[in-house]
Amino acid sequence: xxxxxxxxxxxxxxxxxxxxxxxxxxxxxxxxxxxxxxxxxxxxxxxxxxxxxxxxxxxxxxxxxxxxxxxxxxxxxxxxxxxxxxxxxxxxxxxxxxxxxxxxxxxxxxxxxxxxxxxxxxxxxxxxxxxxxxxxxxxxxxxxxxxxxxxxxx
Length: 154
Known about the structure:
single chain, mainly alpha, 2 strands, globular
C-alpha cells in the first residue's frame, strides 16, 4: 500500500534521461544483491485504471507527459507512466521503440499523446463497431443467396 511519503502533487516527477540512468543503476545494483522477496505491482496503480485520490492531483503541465512511475515495483524496471486528463494510468517501456525512437524522441512523445487522448479511443471503438456492422451485412447477404439457391432444387 502507499506510504505517507507518496502523498501529494510534488511526487509527480517528469521522466528524464537522468531518470533512465537512475533506473539502470538500480537494476545493476539489484543484480549484484542476493535474491530478495519479490515485490508485486500495486493493484491501485495498474495500467488503464484511474489514479487513486490518495496520490493527489497531478499538476496540469504534467498531464500527457512521461512521468517517473509511482509504483515501487517499477522502480527497477525500464518503464514510465503517463496520465491523461481523466487521470487514467498508461504505462510504457523506456527502451527504444522500433530500435530507433528513445523515450525522449519527439515522434514517440507525439505518438504517446495521440494514444492517451480520449478521441483516439473513441475513434478505435467506432472503427470496431463499423467493422462489425459491415461484417453482419455481408454475412446476411451470403446467407440469403445460399438459401435461395438450395430452395430451387427442393
